[in-house]
Amino acid sequence: MISVSYPILGGNLAEVGAASRLLKEQLKRLGVQADVMRRVMIAAYEAEANVTIHAARGTLFARLSDGRIDMEIVDQGPGIPDVSLALTEGWSTAPEAARKLGFGAGMGLPNIRRSSDRFSLHTQVGKGTRVLSTILFRAEAASPVAASGCAPLVRAERCVACLSCVHACPTEAIRLCDARPSVLEHLCVGCASCVAACRHGVFSVVAQAPEATLPEGSVLVAPAGLLGGLERDPEEVLARLSRAGVGDLRVLEQWEAGIGEEAIRLASSDESLWPVIAPQCPAVTNLILASYPSLIPHLLASLSPVEAASRELATEQMVVVVGCPAQAALLEGDGASGRVLVRTPADVASLASGRSGSPEGAVPLRAPAGWDAGDAPLGVVRADGTRRVLKALAAAERGLLADVAVLDLRLCDGGCAGSPLYAVDPAVTRLRLARAGTNGREWGAATPGVVPRVEPYERRRGVRLDDDMGRAMQKLKAIDELGRTLPGRDCAVCGSPTCASLAEDIVLGRTTARCPFIGTGGRP
Amino acid sequence: MTLARIVEELGLRRLTPEIADREAVEVGAAHASDLLSDVLARAPRGGLTLTIQAHLNVVAVALHAEQAGVIFTSGMAPDEPVRARALAEGLPLYATEDSTFDTSGRLFALGLRGRHG
User: How far away is chain B from the Cα of A94, in angstroms, using its nearest Cα?
Assistant: First the structure.
């Protein structure tokens, strides 16, 4: 992974693009392909032009890692009062001096957005603007699969071929070949099922190595359960985090509460949208986009809790404790400048340990009043865990849940604090937090921030069997015929989760494995 | 058609004769626009850009858009720093007294189009 940053001097209209040019030179040296380069350059140049035209100064951050380039262009300019207007093609606020030079077509932000696989914009009038652009690319241009970007990190050398992960994956995304597990990105939703299932540490969330301290004054965003999950005494955890550099702690439930309220509001205004699905769990959202696209209209169009947190705290140095690869993936684009650090509970645990002594200047803990209400509000049906979530989605798709106002679905049992990345059961952390009480601490009244999505939800492009319809039908027929010769035990010994998926994998050339039980009547 | 042939056919004035060896390339497309974002987004790779904007940003954008060359029309011509930068980056520059409209028409007659293929 390579990170670079270049300053942008505002006002120098005669020569725009110095920073982009330096970035281009770097990327050329690294051998980035031409078409990817062009998209990166369009995004970088336009963002740089915006800074030059409107702001006094700014910085272009870029981070190149495996299969992606994340860019963040930040300025301390005037900010953008009306974002949707700014994103409209043809709308420009460029001053005359800039227009004379050919700027001001009003295509800047639309061009950036069009060139990017992921795009977001954070702005505050009077403070500045932050443009985030992520461009994904694959080394092999031949691959027709759209990268989802939310797959976990795989340490294949630890695999013992027990097949637990292959069975555990709710979307049948894992394949095993010669004791090397691989994740099919177009199927992966970034939940932590494989992380939970594997007893040998093959799967993990992408995270940097834990440091001894965090940037001074960081804002830590985590589920409240983190406090009860590290030490027995939440106060002690707070004190240690404080010494590790954390300046403020915000619980994720704050943003969850906001989303929950907004979902209820939406359900109240339009019964035809029942059940409204609250986008609390990014893995569930990915699951809907990939496998239940008919439910997309039911999804509340707001950002997930971690994204909303990153947006609301756009000017702060943040540390976000994630529970799954899906959350980590959502924040990866925000990390080009190093403003948003993604950590696992284990990383924070090592931070918080090994420091003893009296708590001094402990971190304030802020959470909305009633954040831990226990029971969900009336009309909200909460279902946790893979089995219940899949059942709920299937039922919703069949129209069986039209009398349910809001569905709150979490793939991890107990919500984020129930992620397998936490060593302690969420019920225990709840108990510890309740025991610690408020201790005069100000828990309440932080306004939940619901951030509406700028980009609409998009159905994930499934892998077509073949671009040519005729060949696709032939393949379908071949898969069907082959499938009928297989035992139908779905034992996964071949490395594919089900006999049907083995048939597809063979016909599409994904595997050279064959069923070891053919010709044995399906018995070993 | 090679860029060299195009230059001859249109009677374009070479502003960067030092890199005339670049004219061996085949050019089949061109784009006419004075708005930088438009060139950046739409100019076909390996084509020519026609413009009356004769400043450094045009060179920067033409390079990003991987153009084979820039034709300044209507008698416009860049100053020395712009020419020098184009030279350094290997981007041929040309000038013509004709308007963008007429120049576009001539290029179209020679077979160039707004996009490849």
Answer: 12
